[in-house]
Each structure stands twice: as structure tokens, then as C-alpha cells.
TrEMBL record:
Cofactor(s) annotated in UniProt: pyridoxal 5'-phosphate
An example molecular function term from Gene Ontology annotations: metal ion binding
Any Pfam family matching the protein: Cys_Met_Meta_PP
Protein name: Cysteine-S-conjugate beta-lyase
Pathway(s) of this molecule: Isoprenoid biosynthesis; isopentenyl diphosphate biosynthesis via mevalonate pathway; isopentenyl diphosphate from (R)-mevalonate: step 1/3
Location of this chain's protein in the cell: Cytoplasm
Domain of life: Eukaryota
Composition-biased stretches (Polar residues): 825-836
UniProt xrefs under PANTHER family: CYSTATHIONINE BETA-LYASE, TRANS-SULFURATION ENZYME FAMILY MEMBER
Biological processes, Gene Ontology terms: 'de novo' L-methionine biosynthetic process; isopentenyl diphosphate biosynthetic process, mevalonate pathway; sterol biosynthetic process; transsulfuration
Region (Disordered): 816-851
Length: 878
């Protein structure tokens, strides 16, 4: 029914091919009004920015009563709304106000129960000030409306369909018919803002008056406020024109111009917005969020679903996080703009409805409303996904290789930026193949029962800090914004670190945050460099303010892989913080008798996460060691005992776990001679360059030892325990000799060898790790008596060495479970605001967070550390 204001369809050129009337999307673009031709033929309707018009008895005299730009707009909106008349006023609420002035005291209104908050507010006002009765009814059910219809008193029925934000649908056609039959004088009024005339024209379905907040889809750009009223009844039109003229709330000429301009693109905007909102709804639905979509009856009445959708998260606080975490989706009330918007109706657009009424009307407090714009749908999904991840609403499941919804109760656990992450990794002993492994030879190594621990604690002051208790209690802090971000090449969220270190970033860190650390602080400087390098590479998007602390029960720099276990802790903590790895939601236990996470937490970290941790630990090792083989970090991450062959030497590489190692007893003796792995490794490299044949032969011999040791360990049950121990002893001596030839022993290590080899001990010893000092490893036969051992320990201690009996092959990387049900409530964690006794000055230590593990972590004695960590709760291991 667009007859009166239809664009003239040209006469048929031939009777055989008559022209069709223009379709709606064409009508939307053509704003011409044949009866208001512009005197200059302007293509765009001019703005008649004039309050008055000269002359007597002309069409326009005063802009409150009429203005040419407004007439043009009203003609156009009537045309696309199947209306005979349209009126432009200053806002959607002004439109409703004008319509409600049709009522008189004693009249009754039947209105929906899920109305826009502003509509409710105005209805409440007229109820109390005008004496009109308002019945709120579930208009999705026409049967619920009928009992409230009074043949004479019902003066108006006010409908929204779909409703905002619950998208409830009213059968406009059926309700209009029922009303006309039962209360012929009542007018049916529809708020069509959610649809716009492009998608729904309620006048075609029996409504008497339709109004739109033209601030939304009609204009489309959120750059004006306007309301449109359309109708087909002259009697009503006359009253509306009278009210607008009397009240003076007609739309200004410039806003009429903007609205005319905006409406021309409504078809393309809404077509795209609808397509994208379908994509977004499908995405949210696939993640398992309760997503509200328009459907059913609506299909019969409208031409589309619109571009507003809602979803529930199950947790109001979580919803607030998601809404606050988007960047492309602007947090804003209102909808219908070319830009996408996100909001929480209960705290924003519908906050004016009291919570009890909201609850009674079924408006969930956690509901998130999405108003889809015309941006690229991939960008919108990407932004939404980031917000869901950051809020902890979804998490990566390596098993399913996709993001999955985190059960609402557990969402808080994955708020990685807000919680502490406590990790640990073991040191290692290399039995065969150190140094040679750098040059492609297979090494045999195992985890020892001494560990490094790393703790990341959130700060909230834009600072980043580290404390290395084991390195003269080193503490440093930096302003995060002042870190050399510009020097770093950015890595995508799932991108791997390239093989080569970013030298530009290393130089920038050394010249910037670390510039004041002289050579005497090289240990702390290197550790801080590795940490800052990974922090900048991994945190470029979020830049969280945190404190990182590392402590080790391992001797630092003594050949037991302290750097690899430190690297593993720092890398893993940063990966967890930045959600590059996640601890997947715990599945519900199958039964009380078979809870998950048994097996002492083993295999509780997904493979993909473990490999990612190992890759980044290797990056840190490169910073600390220059040219590491990767054996140390692989043991620190995977634990157990393994053979390791570095890639790139034209033979099979990788690692294999070996068994039979765990039953062996070793004595580790720290010579306490400081040395530098980086220099020692570089020294062997130089020797290889200068004497390739000599070194080549040594490397080949070490390879033979590793191969034979591996075979002996694998076959030990067949050849007997005694043979195994004898073979290993011989190979230990032989491997050590080769290390001496490579120039990496030290007189103190030779002394340890001499002492342990002497009668009555008769033991085999070799240096382990990089040598040059550090530790020696001695194989202890099964029949070595306690008394002999006591003598040996006394002898070594008397020579100022630190002997230590260890077991090997234990757990690799561990992460303290983030799930509260795994935490030990009786663990010694201080409550409330705490200030460590040794570090009273907040300025020098950063602010302390309540209930943080940090204080205990830093002040516990070294001997208490591992017991305390163990008692905190369940540790998840590789
Ligand atoms: N607990 C720790 N806290 C801070 N930094 C540490 C810690 N443990 C190791 N590091 C870093 O690692 C460096 C020690 O690495 P180095 O390679 O010299 O010893 P190692 O790893 O124990 O020996 P190897 O590599 O021969 O097994 C330290 O100088 C420091 O930079
Ligand atoms: C010396 C070395 O072989 C072991 C250091 O623990 C170096 C390495 O493999 O990276």
C-alpha cells in the first residue's frame, strides 16, 4: 500500500514489457518528491535552515508548523512505511509522547511487559499524572491480551515486536484484529524501532499508528536524535499535527537533512547487519551460549530478523568482563548504528526498570545485547572471541583443538591476568653427552629432585617487577610503558617465535631497562633479560602489570640445569598469564570414586601447552646460553629420563624417554667453582673450528658411549643389574676423559673424581653439565653401604664440596592448579594485606595484593620452599 507517495512509475514503453513498480530498497534511495521539485534541480534536498518564511498565505510560514526539508523527509518516510502521513519529531520518546497525548483521563492502555525502559518510564508518568490505566501484558500471547480489552475504555494498545532486548514477538496482525473486533475505537500503536520500515511495516498488518526512534536504523549513524510517527488515518494525523505544532517538538531542518541522507542506505546497511548478526549468533550458539534469535510468527509479518541479538553467560560479573573487554564493539546504549555496539541492558538501557520488575519479566541480569554494525564480520568475531577469552568465558581445548565454553562457575579461574600463577620445573643431570649434544651427538639426561619455582603475582600500578632470591636477592622494577615495545617485532597470538632471537630487542632491553646493571650483576642481568624479552614478546597486546619471582632449590650455575628450569618457569608463567596456554576446564568427575586428575596430577597439562612451554623455555635458554642444544629445557619440561638429539645434523632428532634410569642412585657433588656455561660452550665450538678432526673423533666416541648406554639401560633386565652398573661405570670414566680433552674440566672436578675413585669407595665420577667447575656426578652401586656413604660424604664435605644424594627421573614442569577445589585451605597463605618482614618498603617491592602467595614464597627458607609449595594444593604435571 504505497500508492499515494509512490515514485511515479514511468509509462510502459511497450505494452508487451510493462515496467514494474520500484521495489522497497530502490524507494529507500530515491528521496524525490514530485510535488516538491527544487528550483535549481539540486540532487540532495537542501537544508532550509530558516525559522520563518516570508509572505502571507504561503505553504510555509514558521518552522515549528512546517519546514520544506521536514516535509521532504516526512514524504519520504511515509512512502517507505506504507503510510499516508508521517511526522518527524525530536526523538523516539518525543514521538511516543505525542501519541500518548491522544489519551484522556480514564482511558486504558494495554502494553507489552518487555518494553524499552524509556517507554515504561513515560507510561508510569502518564499513569500517575494523567490518570490513564496501564495494563502490562505478555503480548507474545494474544490470548493474554483479550481479558484486558474493554469495549469502550481501552483506548490504546502499545506493542513492540520484536521486543528489546529479549526479542519476543507479538502477532501484530492477530492482536490488531482482536482489538478492532472488541474495542473498535482503540488505536493500535507499534514501536517499530527494532525493525525499521525496511524490514516491517505494521500499518500493513492493521496497526493505526507506528513510531520509530529514527536515531536507530532509519538514520543509521548515531549522529542525530529523531522520532518518526506514521499513520494512515486522517483523524489521527490531524490530532498528531496539532500536538506537534502546539508542543513545538518537530525535528530541526539540519536533522531532517541528516536523516534523509541516512535513510538512503538503510537497505544495504540492514542487509549486511542481518547477515553478520546471523554469523555472530551461530558462533555464540556453537559455543553453547544461550542465544536469543528472532523467528516463527515474525517470519510472516516481517522481511528479516533485524540485527540485534542477545546472549546469556550465566554470570553477571562475567558478562560485565566480556562487555568491558571488547574493542570494536563499542559499549553503548541504543542500536541501529553502522558501528557495532555491545551492552548489558540490566545495567544500561533497562536500568530504569527496578530489579524486581526486571526479574518478573524474565530479563536476565547477565544478558548481553549485541547490535551488529557493518564492519567486516571476521573482525567482529575476532574481537568478540578475544573478549570471551580474556574474560575467561571460553578457553582453548587442545584436545578438541578449538575454543570451548568454560562452565560458568569456572570462568573466573581463567581470568589469567587477575590471578597468581605458580609453576615449577626440575633441574637435570646429564649422564652422557654434554657439550657433544650441542654438535648433534645424542645425550642421556634425567630430571633431578631439585626444582626452580616461579610465581607471577598481579600488580595494579602499571609496573613490572622481578625478584631473584637466589641471586643476591635481586629486585628490579620497570614502568611497563617505558619498556622498548617499539624495538620488538610483534608476534601474533598463535605465532611461534622464529629460530633466531630478535637482536634488536635484546639490544634495546640492555640499553634501556637493564642499562644500570654492570658486569658484576651479570647473573641477574641475564635472567632479567630473558624474562623481559619473553614478557615483551608475549604480552604485546595486554601489557599486564605483574611481579615475577623465581627461587630454586638447585644450585645456580653449577651444571644442574638451573638456567633451563628458570627458563621453563618464566616461560610457562608468562604463557599462562597471557593465555597462550590454558588449563582447560576440569571435566566433571565420572563418579565420586573416580575423580579426574588422579595419577598424582601427571599428564594433566595438555600436550600442545607442554610443547609451547618447551619452545619458549628454549628461547630463554638461547638468551642465557647462546647456543643451547635444547636438552636441558626438554628435561625441565618433560621430566623423567630421556635421550635427546638436536635437530639439524642430518640424522634423526628429537627425544625418547628411557626407563631403567629411575632405579639408579647418584651422588651429585658441587665443586662450588663458579663458571659460565655460555663461555664453555663457545670454547668447545671454537676448538671444533680449529681442530675439526680431533674434536670430530671425540664427538664420535661420545656418540658411541651414548648409544651403548642407551642399549645397556634398555637391556638391563636381560644382562643383569651388575653388568649394567659395571658398563655404566666404565662409560662414565670414558666420557669424562673426553670432556677433559675438550677442555671443560677443572682441578676441583678432578679432585672429586680422585676422592670418589679412591679405595674403599672405588666409584666412577664425571663432570656433568657444562663443566669448568660446577657439579660432578657419581654412580652409586646398589651394594654401596650406608657406612661407606657416610664416610664419603664426610670426606667430600671436608674438602669444602657440597655432596648431595639424589634420585632421578621425577616430574617435569608443574603448574599449581588454578581451580579452588584443588587448593589446600590450610596452606600457609597469609590473609589480607600483607607486608613481608624483610621487605617493608612498598616502593621497593611493589604493592602487595591481599591473599597473595608472594610473601610466603619470598620469605620461606630454602629448606621449607618445596614442602610449602607441595602443600598449597594439587600440582598439575606434564
Ligand atoms: N633461580 C634463579 N633465579 C634467577 N636466575 C636464575 C636462576 N637459576 C638460573 N638462573 C639464570 O641462569 C644462569 C645460570 O645458568 P648456567 O647455565 O650458568 O648454569 P646452569 O644452568 O645451572 O648450568 P648448566 O647449563 O651447565 O646445567 C644464572 O646466571 C641466571 O641468569
Ligand atoms: C653443555 C651443555 O651440553 C649442557 C649444559 O647443561 C649445553 C647444552 O647442551 O645446551
Amino acid at each position: 500500500m504505497v500508492a499515494q507517495h509512490d515514485l511515479p512509475t514511468p509509462d510502459p514503453e511497450t505494452p508487451l514489457r510493462p515496467r514494474q513498480p520500484y521495489r522497497l530498497s530502490t524507494l529507500c534511495v530515491n528521496v524525490e518528491n514530485p510535488s516538491m521539485k527544487d528550483q535549481y534541480g539540486s540532487s540532495s534536498v537542501p537544508i532550509y535552515q530558516s525559522a520563518t518564511f516570508k509572505g502571507i498565505g504561503n505553504e510555509f510560514d514558521y518552522s515549528r508548523s512546517g519546514n520544506p526539508t521536514r516535509s521532504h523527509l516526512e514524504h519520504h518516510i511515509a512512502k517507505i512505511s506504507s503510510a499516508s502521513r508521517a511526522f518527524a519529531v525530536s526523538s523516539g520518546m518525543a514521538a511516543l509522547d505525542v501519541i500518548l497525548r491522544l489519551l484522556k483521563p480514564g482511558d486504558e492502555i494495554i502494553a507489552g511487559d518487555d518494553l524499552y525502559g524509556g517507554t515504561n518510564r513515560l507510561l508510569t508518568f502518564i499513569r500517575t499524572h494523567v490518570g490513564v490505566t496501564v495494563h502490562h501484558v505478555d503480548t507474545t500471547n494474544p490470548d493474554a491480551v483479550i481479558p484486558f480489552i474493554h469495549p469502550t475504555k481501552t483506548a490504546m494498545v502499545l506493542l513492540e515486536s520484536p521486543t528489546n532486548p529479549l526479542l519476543k514477538i507479538a502477532d501484530l496482525a492477530l492482536i490488531s484484529k482482536e482489538i478492532k473486533e472488541r474495542a473498535p475505537a482503540a488505536v493500535v500503536v507499534v514501536d517499530n524501532t527494532m525493525m525499521s520500515p525496511y524490514l516491517q511495516r505494521p500499518l500493513e498488518h492493521g496497526a493505526d499508528i507506528v513510531y520509530d526512534s529514527a536515531t536507530k536504523y532509519l538514520s543509521g549513524h548515531h549522529d542525530l536524535m529523531a522520532g518518526m510517527i506514521t499513520c494512515n488515518r486522517d483523524d489521527i494525523a490531524k490530532q498528531i499535527a496539532f500536538t506537534i505544532n502546539s508542543v513545538g517538538n518537530a525535528l530541526t531542518p539540519i536533522d531532517c537533512f541528516l536523516l534523509l541522507r541516512g535513510v538512503k542506505t538503510i537497505a544495504v546497511r540492514l542487509d549486511r547487519q542481518q547477515t553478520t548478526s546471523q554469523v555472530v549468533a551461530t558462533y555464540l550458539h556453537s559455543l553453547g551460549f544461550k542465544t536469543i534469535l528472532v523467528r516463527d510468527i515474525h517470519q510472516r509479518i516481517s522481511d528479516g530478523n533485524g540485527a540485534v541479538l542477545s546472549f546469556e553467560t550465566g554470570d553477571k560479573e562475567l558478562s560485565e568482563k566480556i562487555v568491558g573487554g571488547t574493542r570494536l564493539w563499542g559499549i553503548s546504549v541504543s542500536f541501529g548504528c553502522v558501528n557495532s555496539l555491545i551492552s548489558m541492558p540490566c545495567v544500561m538501557s533497562h536500568a530504569s526498570i527496578d530489579p524486581a520488575t526486571r526479574a518478573a519479566r524474565g530479563l536476565p541480569e547477565d544478558l548481553i545485547r549485541l547490535c551488529v554494525g557493518i564492519e567486516d564480520s571476521s573482525d567482529l568475531l575476532d574481537d568478540l572471541e578475544h573478549a570471551l577469552i580474556d574474560a575467561g568465558a571460553i578457553a582453548l581445548s587442545a584436545q578438541q583443538n578449538k575454543y570451548v565454553r568454560v562452565p560458568p562457575g569456572h570462568a573466573a579461574l581463567n581470568k589469567a591476568l587477575e590471578q597468581e600463577w605458580f609453576v615449577s620445573a626440575p633441574g637435570k643431570v646429564i649422564l652422557f653427552g654434554e657439550h657433544a649434544v650441542v654438535h648433534g651427538v645424542t645425550a642421556i639426561a634425567a630430571a633431578v629432585d631439585l626444582r626452580c619455582y616461579g610465581l607471577i603475582t598481579p600488580r595494579n600500578d602499571g609496573m613490572l617487577s622481578v625478584r631473584f632470591n637466589d641471586i643476591d636477592n635481586f629486585y628490579a622494577e620497570w614502568d611497563i610503558m617505558a619498556l622498548p615495545w617499539a624495538a620488538s617485532t610483534v608476534l601474533g597470538q598463535s605465532e611461534r617465535h622464529p629460530d633466531d632471537l630478535d637482536q634488536q630487542l635484546i639490544e634495546a632491553i640492555n640499553a634501556g631497562p637493564l642499562r644500570e646493571l654492570g658486569p658484576e650483576k651479570s647473573q641477574a642481568r641475564n635472567a632479567a633479560l630473558a624474562f623481559l624479552y619473553m614478557y615483551i614478546k608475549l604480552a604485546s597486546a595486554k601489557r599486564p602489570s605483574v611481579h615475577f619471582g623465581a627461587r630454586s632449590t638447585l644450585p645456580v650455575g653449577a651444571g644442574l640445569g638451573s638456567s633451563a628450569s628458570f627458563s621453563t618457569c618464566a616461560a610457562t608463567a608468562l604463557l599462562l598469564l597471557n593465555q597462550r596456554i590454558v588449563i582447560p576446564p576440569i571435566p566433571a568427575p565420572v563418579s565420586a570414586d573416580h575423580p579426574h586428575l588422579s595419577h598424582h596430577g601427571r599428564h594433566a597439562i595438555e600436550r600442545h601447552s607442554v610443547e609451547e612451554a618447551n619452545r619458549w623455555a628454549f628461547v630463554a635458554e638461547k638468551i642465557l646460553h647462546g647456543n643451547p642444544s635444547g636438552v636441558d629445557n626438554s628435561v625441565a619440561v618433560f621430566g623423567g629420563a630421556l635421550t635427546y638429539t638436536r635437530p639439524g645434523f642430518g640424522k634423526p632428532s628429537g627425544m625418547d624417554s628411557i626407563h631403567g634410569f629411575g632405579s639408579l642412585r647418584f651422588l651429585l657433588t658441587n665443586s662450588k667453582i663458579p663458571r659460565d656455561t655460555k663461555k664453555l660452550v663457545a670454547g668447545v665450538g671454537l676448538m671444533k673450528q680449529e681442530q675439526p678432526e680431533v674434536v670430530g673423533a671425540i664427538l664420535q666416541d661420545i656418540e658411541n658411549i651414548s648409544t651403548q648406554a642407551k642399549r645397556s639401560l634398555a637391556d638391563s633386565s636381560e644382562f643383569g643389574r651388575d653388568n649394567l652398573l659395571r658398563d655404566l661405570s666404565a662409560m662414565i670414566n670414558e666420557n669424562h676423559k673426553h670432556l677433559v680433552s675438550l677442555g671443560v674440566s677443572h682441578p676441583s672436578l678432578e679432585l672429586i673424581r680422585e676422592k670418589t675413585a679412591a679405595s674403599p669407595f672405588n666409584l666412577s665420577t664425571k663432570l656433568t653439565g657444562a663443566g669448568g667447575g660446577g657439579c660432578a656426578v657419581t654412580l652409586i652401586p646398589d651394594d654401596f653401604s650406608d657406612a661407606l656413604m657416610a664416610d664419603l660424604l664426610a670426606e667430600l664435605s671436608a674438602n669444602n664440596f657440597d655432596p648431595y644424594l639424589t634420585s632421578v627421573g621425577g616430574s617435569g614442569l608443574g603448574i599449581l592448579s588454578p581451580y579452588p577445589e584443588h587448593r589446600n585451605p590450610s596452606a600457609n597463605v597469609p590473609q589480607g594485606q600483607v607486608t613481608p618482614p624483610e621487605t617493608p618498603d612498598e616502593a621497593a617491592n611493589g604493592p602487595q595484593l591481599g591473599n597473595s602467595l608472594r610473601t610466603s614464597f619470598e620469605v620461606n627458607s630454602l629448606s621449607e620452599l618445596s614442602g610449602w609449595a607441595h602443600d598449597l594444593g594439587k600440582w598439575l604435571y606434564v
